[in-house]
Write a structure and sequence with these properties.
Elements (H helix, E strand, L loop, with lengths): L22 H14 L3 H14 L1
Helix pairs in contact: 1-2
Length: about 55
């Protein structure tokens, strides 16, 4: 039996990063995530991928 339960995935997220946002930055993130119906974590992942494109 697996030591962890949950939905199986092809792309496990093994690293956790904690970050502090000021209220304005958090509002930007939340507004974006709400408009796309995604989690904050997914919104941050998308933002980081945009950094690679620059």
């Amino acid at each position: 039996m697996s030591p962890r339960t949950g939905r199986p995935t092809d792309n496990p997220k093994q690293t956790q990063v904690a970050v502090r946002f000021d209220s304005e930055t958090l509002k930007i993130l939340d507004d974006y995530c709400n408009s796309k119906n995604i989690t904050r974590a997914e919104g941050v992942r998308q933002a980081v991928k945009l950094l690679k494109e620059q």
